[in-house]
Amino acid sequence: MVGSVQFAHVEKEVLMTYYAQRQEGLEKRLVIEKEWLRGMVLSAEQDISQAPPGKLYVTESHGFVQFRHRLPDKKIAYLKKGDDRVRQLAQAEYARSVLHSSKFCLRQIDRLCSEYGIEEEMPDRKVKGKAVPEVKVLLQQDDRGLKTDPHPSLTAIKSIYEELPLPRKPLVKPYVMPDAAFVQSWREENPISNSIDKEGCVFVTAGGFAVRSKSEVIIADRLHAANIPFRYEQPLRVGRLGLVHPDFFILNAHTRREVVWEHFGMMDNPDYCDRALRKIALYAKAGLVPGDGLIVTFESSSQPLDIRAVESYVEALSA
After folding, report:
1. Which residue among 20, 106, 116, 228 is the one 20 to 30 A from 42 at the CA level?
2. What is the pLDDT of residues 167-177, one digit of tens each?
3. What is the DSSP letter of 207?
């Protein structure tokens, strides 16, 4: 009861601060998004301008790939794989799709900014006689300490490369790192710590590391089965909260957002309950609330872990 009263006391102030920060953050994200999309447009236009006119046809039969270049006069030229025109034409056709999608997203953002009176304070970018810098998608660390993808249009742009036919993919240099390469980079940046050596970690998971409870085994095994990248008790600096060791530190590979998952397993213990509620309140002050960067699950001696809830969270992290 004491913990509940304490949490309710700070809840209103914390949530008001959180939503004010998110409103301000939304405006900033829209401006960043426009600049990112403009970079996409410039890179796509450059690749299109460098390609020869015409269209590339790629066909595969009996293990052999054939490249045909249809010229503007409708004549057909057969090209070898090593011919520069093959890559230039393939890159240009990929770039046209990116250009179309980027311009569509820019129009939608312009409409949103106009409706909500969001002003843009950013000079127009013009490139004359110079190569456009390579477009990169980087995770930006927000004020909460988590890394989040600043580009909501990422999925649309990323899917253009991922949906290319297999024979075309080696010919194209994507503007956005594919999911598999991105996950590998994240795992290298966040190496696995040996939890078996930690005091109290005695329950071994399917992934071969140890956790502190059987419920954490269930969560870890569900994440592992869904091929979701995560780390257990990874040291993480979260805003004003400082250094924490969340139960699970997770990457959603599709959205490129990082998420913290805390499991509180002894909620019928008053002291434990108080500590859990204080921790949730501190997360909220740092900008992490359930549904936005934070997942929380609970159990007690009379109410076991809700497996369906765990599966729902895992499914959402896979989307």
Report:
1. 116
2. 999 999 999 88
3. T
